[in-house]
Design a protein that fits this description.
325 residues; mainly alpha; two-stranded antiparallel sheet; 13 helices
Length: 325
């Protein structure tokens, strides 16, 4: 019966995201919510803020789980799930505002710290982290008051930075939440599994519209939500180290962009004969590094590279978890 609950949560998340995306795309265009697909030769205008559908599907799935909890005995920690929803939706709201009003980068980096307050509240009194190889480490109040807010802020911003190519954000995110679902089953964390299944299903539905050639972009509302959901899931499940490992490709991108003072433009590829090359030959991010090393690469293959890279990182993590390294 429990398996059926998870299945229904996933189906609800998938269907809500899929159907809403279909109806949102023409309406987003009609109201001017569009962005240029800068990696195409003709730079077509594409619907922006499609991440609204991801947020709606994810939230709908979790609300269905809460319904099952209230009336059909689906047991999980309701307070944890409600705290997760508040944190994730707070960051989704920040992403939507950023899409509409273009929040300054420094403010966008700091705001998610406040969204983590519900998680800080429900995790008060817990001061330990389970770290692979090392084991359980007691970090005292630093864990609750410092690491939880920073974890939420960092994860949401990192997934918003390694983005901008058709299917990359949702594709890498799907790998991440499939991995977290597998880990949650092994660890017996119902709450972490709920968050992961709901987000996985929503991202898979969104990919139908986001894969090359993309009909809709997730926007900051979608990109920030992916990172926020990952951070929230691992914090609720007390498996933060898993999230840190899955973030490694994003961390690599962060350091490359940091070395270039976080460029807000020319992070994309220069289109020539079906391939993308670094603009002006300069590497400004991880994606442009791959373009340069490959001596030009199609957008589809660039996205495949990063999804496969994330899958390899996930495989290493699963080996660590299941072999108890």
């Amino acid at each position: 019966m429990t398996l059926l609950y998870y299945l229904l949560v996933g189906i609800a998340s998938f269907l809500i995201t899929f159907v809403l995306s279909h109806f949102l795309i023409p309406r987003l265009k009609r109201f001017g919510m569009i962005g240029k697909d800068v990696n195409k030769p003709d730079k077509p205008e594409t619907a922006e803020m499609g991440g609204i559908a991801i947020v709606a599907g994810f939230t709908g799935g979790l609300l269905l789980a809460i319904f099952f909890n209230s009336f059909f005995g689906f047991n999980f920690n309701l307070v944890y799930v409600l705290a997760a929803i508040i944190t994730i939706l707070s960051i989704s709201f920040m992403g939507a505002i950023d899409d509409l009003l273009d929040i300054p980068q420094k403010l966008k980096a700091l705001l998610p710290l406040f969204a983590a307050i519900p998680l800080v509240a429900v995790k008060a009194g817990i001061t330990t982290m389970d770290i692979p190889v090392i084991g359980i480490v007691n970090l005292g109040l630093i864990y609750v008051l410092v690491l939880i807010p920073i974890g939420v802020a960092v994860a949401s911003n990192l997934t918003n930075m390694l983005a901008g190519f058709n299917g990359m954000e949702a594709g890498m995110g799907a790998v991440i939440f499939l991995t977290m679902s597998i880990i949650a089953v092994k660890e017996g964390s119902v709450e972490m599994l709920l968050i992961s299944v709901a987000m996985l299903a929503a991202l898979l539905a969104f990919l139908r519209y986001n894969l090359f050639p993309s009909k809709v972009f997730p926007g900051d509302v979608g990109n920030l939500t992916i990172g926020a959901a990952l951070a929230t899931a691992v914090i609720i499940g007390n498996f933060e180290s898993a999230g840190a490992i899955l973030m490694l490709p994003y961390v690599a991108d962060f350091f490359i962009k940091a070395a270039n003072r976080f460029p807000s433009s020319q992070w994309w590829g220069e289109y020539r004969d079906g391939k993308l090359y670094p603009v002006e030959g300069k590497v400004r991010g991880f994606c442009q590094l791959v373009m340069k090393k490959a001596n030009g690469i199609s957008e589809q293959n660039l996205v495949r590279f990063f999804i496969i890279l994330e899958a390899l990182v996930a495989a290493v993590l699963l080996a660590i978890v299941y072999l108890n390294i």
